[in-house]
Amino acid sequence: xxxxxxHAYLFGTAFSVLSFGMAIDALASDKDDPAQAQSSFxxxxxxxxxxxxxxxxxxxxxxxxxxxxxxxxAFTDQTVDNLAAMAKALEKNGTxxxxxxxPTKSQVLPELVPARASLYGFDANIAAEIYxxxxxxxxxxxxxxxxxxxxxxxxxxxxxxxxxxxQADFHWTxxxxxxxxxxxxxxxxxxxxxxxxKPVGFAMQEVKPEPEYSSMRELLQKHCVTHVxxxxxxxxxxxREEAAADAxxxxxxxxxxxxxxxxxxxxxxxxxxxxxxxxxEHWSGIPVDNYSISGGNQFGSILSYITSREFQEQRxxxxxxxxxxxxxxxxxxxxxxxxxxxxxxxxCGTSVDVKPVDEKSVAGDLSSLKLGQDDVxxxxxxxxxSRNVTFTFTGADGTVRTRSMERGDRLRATGRYxxxxxxxxxxxxxxxxxxxxxPVGETTALSVCKTKxxxxx
Length: 457
What we know:
This protein is an alpha+beta fold. It folds into 2 domains: about 15-340, no CATH class; about 345-450, Jelly Rolls. It has 14 helices and 18 strands. The strands form 5 sheets. A 5-stranded parallel beta sheet has the order 4-3-9-7-8, sandwiched between helices. Strand 14 (about 390-395) and strand 15 form a beta hairpin.
């Protein structure tokens, strides 16, 4: 599909680029076209649903107003810098990061967006330019980012008439996931880390899709008279054809094992019916370990995996991080990024002697260490049973400061917490006690990690 480019300034809010005249034109268009103004499914009040405001487009395609039609995405320069620091830290230990901003429905299927969407600030050309701008900025900072929106737009419907996204749900179909995976694989094959990879064959075989529950469709149906499209489509699984020969000669980690991809993502990567991981294997020829988490939001899967012992002990050749473009990676400030970068680098060679205080706590002395704002404390209970930890710092003057961290129920419990010391005054680093929500043991440890790739332990 050919897209006409417009030169536009990307203001802080999408509504800055719209005129009142455009809104009037959209209303007139809807009135002039009764088929467009009237729902094909007898739906009413969708734009006023408190749980999830929606709008009906063409050919039974429904869009979320807030997530799918917005033009403002909080992808700041600081976020780009954080991703660049993460990529550099991972590369230092042999893992290449590939970041995949996942486009919205409207960025892939603008021809199905109703004219009325302009009332909410939607403009297809600006939406496409904003997505492209994110990819360009990441690439300029040395992050391997993949534009999957363009190929998905160019091939947004398969031979069965299935679109790249489900009509009554916001997730992508197997067709959409497959197109995206092919673009990512093409990017991977251009990277230095792929040069000595011996591909493995993965064939895609059609399987009967499992029933797919969709909270969006369920909510949608309550406001429609006839049945809206079901969340089903042709589904496929990846079947390995052959093992890689002479894997030891191609392994850069010295473990004699074949290259692997760690897939970190959201529900888009976690849904079996779409099988994004399988398509990545098919198009890249590299086995994929899928660590995606549904409902983990922007950081759930990455924190669960990157803080794990599994990651530290056997790092993948490639890490693909999929995140919808509307996810705000600056929402929680610098705390998650300090964890991500420190865990990516894994430079935690300075140990702190600790002694048990009670069943669930240990204590240590930090006063002899030269700690700075860029340092991170790693508290490791020694097993995967803990979800909560509290650090209590007591300064030389007796001032007490506490910091707590929690892994929600949707995250993996790794028992490893990376606490940034940023924002804590230097005179606070006297005594420290670390309290977990589970019993400590002989393997419970406290150490200092670096976040700067040029520093040495």
